[in-house]
């Protein structure tokens, strides 16, 4: 009897301990998850990924994923040139000089594009759309032959960034030439990144890394106090590897180049970027340009503009316009790079295999 009560005396606290342990364990399981939240998907014909370094419950995670998906779907639905029902496609079919009402995001992207067009002397030009199609990297796919000089000069009469203007008060875009059409692809991915970043900030989330098709924006620092480390790719078509690592805090990075998206015509290699001065794609050189700016849309537009101008003219312009840019150029023994003063001042990253 006495032995049994001693056992009961021992079992009772043990049972209680197990009960408390299980309750705590359940709370841990259903409470906020400490590990960073990482997820992604497809948007704008490419992939996106998001990393959030904050403790979040399963319900919070689901709500955030929903919000982000909504923002990206909206940008795609408005600005895709691949979707004939998008607002941009409808504007492009509006062959008239009458004002056309567009939604605020389209006006915002247009304003960013316009500013970079002006500052880059027209190297950035969202009216290159007919040439994008003629050279075979638009929705219609590859043509059977390169466009002739006559075709090019006829298409170029519809081109020029000044041929479309925004009336911000009225919320409209107005064509000077009824046949002018727009392609916002060189800035829309960056804009998508900004929309997601702004949505996260509104939700009170300050520590994140958002990426759409290679354009990135970092919010704050990670919880351990370190910056978000990202890699600039080596502009190598044969393999994917990091050329240089960069630490980002509250800033965006965009890379443009001829090395990933190029094709061959008559034995020549061309990039998917048009030089508005010639109406032709920029020749393939195996180089890249990376731009850093607080806004991903601005970095995206500048990266394309500086790709058009190349590492000499582009570098000088970036210096004059105080753009933080890094040009990575093929050299005899691999790659070499040159960063503008702004780039060198702001960047806290360490070089990785700088000369290879
Ligand atoms: P990105 O990958 O940001 O450099 O953008 C390249 C895309 O922008 C191309 O696939 C074209 O749709 C479009 N594009 C090509 N040339 C230009 C240009 N000079 N200015 C603006 N957009 C361009
Ligand atoms: Mg771009």
Question: Please, could you describe this protein's structure?
Answer:
The chain is an alpha+beta fold and 356 residues long. Helices cover 38% and strands 25% of the residues. It is built from nine helices and 16 strands. The protein has helices at 2-30, 58-79, 87-93, 104-119, 129-134, 149-156, 185-202, 296-320, 341-346; strands at residues 37-43, 46-52, 100-101, 164-167, 172-175, 208-212, 215-219, 228-233, 242-248, 251-257, 262-265, 268-275, 280-283, 288-293, 324-331, 334-339. The strands form four sheets. The chain has an eight-stranded antiparallel sheet with strand order 1-2-6-7-10-14-15-16. Strand 11 and strand 12 (268-275) form a beta hairpin. Helix 2 packs antiparallel against helix 7 (185-202) and helix 4 runs parallel beside helix 8 (296-320). The longest helix has 29 residues, at 2-30. The chain is globular and about 105 Å long. The model is unreliable at 348-356 (pLDDT under 50). Bound molecules: adenosine monophosphate and magnesium ion. Adenosine monophosphate binds next to helix 7, strand 12 and helix 8. Adenosine monophosphate binds at residues 124-126, 128, 132, 137, 183, 185-186, 256, 272-274, 276, 300, 304, 308.
What is the element layout, followed by pairings?
Blueprint: H1 2-30, E1 37-43, E2 46-52, H2 58-79, H3 87-93, E3 100-101, H4 104-119, H5 129-134, H6 149-156, E4 164-167, E5 172-175, H7 185-202, E6 208-212, E7 215-219, E8 228-233, E9 242-248, E10 251-257, E11 262-265, E12 268-275, E13 280-283, E14 288-293, H8 296-320, E15 324-331, E16 334-339, H9 341-346
Residues 186, 254, 256, 300-301, 303-304 line the site of magnesium ion (MG).
């Amino acid at each position: 009897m006495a032995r049994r009560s001693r056992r009961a005396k021992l079992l009772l606290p043990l049972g209680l301990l197990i009960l408390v342990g299980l309750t705590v364990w359940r709370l841990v399981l259903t409470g906020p998850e400490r590990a960073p939240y990482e997820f992604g998907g497809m948007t704008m014909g490419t992939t996106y990924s998001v990393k959030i370094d904050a403790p979040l419950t399963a319900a919070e995670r689901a709500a955030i994923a929903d919000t982000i998906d909504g923002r990206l779907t909206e940008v795609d639905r408005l600005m895709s040139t691949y979707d004939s029902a998008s607002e941009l496609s409808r504007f492009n079919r509006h062959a008239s000089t009458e004002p056309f009402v567009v939604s605020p995001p389209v006006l915002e992207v247009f304003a960013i594009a316009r500013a970079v067009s002006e500052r880059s002397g027209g190297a950035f030009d969202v009216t290159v759309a007919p040439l994008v199609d003629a050279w075979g990297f638009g929705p219609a796919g590859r043509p059977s032959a390169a466009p002739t000089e006559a075709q090019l000069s006829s298409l170029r009469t519809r081109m020029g960034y000044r041929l479309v203007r925004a009336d911000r008060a009225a919320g409209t875009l107005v064509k000077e030439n009824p046949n002018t059409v727009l392609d916002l692809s060189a800035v829309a991915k960056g804009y998508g990144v900004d929309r997601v970043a702004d949505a996260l900030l509104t939700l009170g989330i300050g520590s994140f890394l958002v990426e759409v098709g290679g354009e990135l924006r970092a919010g704050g620092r990670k919880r351990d106090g370190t910056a978000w480390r990202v890699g600039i790719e080596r502009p190598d078509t044969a393999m994917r590897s990091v050329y240089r690592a960069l630490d980002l805090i509250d800033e965006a990075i965009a890379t443009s180049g001829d090395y990933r998206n190029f094709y061959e015509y008559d034995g020549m290699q061309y990039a998917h970027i048009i030089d508005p001065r010639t109406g032709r794609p920029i020749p393939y050189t195996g180089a890249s340009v990376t731009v850093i700016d607080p806004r991903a849309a601005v970095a995206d537009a500048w990266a394309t503009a500086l790709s058009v101008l190349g590492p000499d003219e582009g570098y000088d312009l970036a210096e004059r316009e105080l753009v933080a840019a890094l040009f990575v150029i093929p050299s005899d023994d691999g790659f070499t790079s040159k960063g503008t003063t702004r780039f060198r001042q702001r960047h806290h990253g360490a070089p990785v295999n700088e000369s290879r």
